Amino acid sequence: MAASNFKRGILQKPRWSIRENQVTPEAVFNDRRAIIKALGLGAVGASLPGQVQAGLFDLFGESKAQDPFVTKKLDFSKNSRFEVNELLTPESKVISHNNFYEFGTSKTDPLDNAQGFNVNPWQLKIDGLVDKPITLNFDDLTGILPLEERIYRLRCVEAWSMVIPWVGFSLGSLLKLAGVKSSASHIAFETLYDPEQMPGQKSRLMGGGIHYPYVEGLTLAEAMNDLSFLAVGLYGKTLPAQNGAPIRLVVPWKYGFKSIKSIVRIRVLDKQPPTSWNQLAPQEYGFYANVNPEVDHPRWSQASERRIGEGGLFSAKRIATLPFNGYQEEVASLYSGLDLRRNY
Ligand code: MTE
Question: What is the pTM of this model?
Answer without folding.
Answer: 0.84
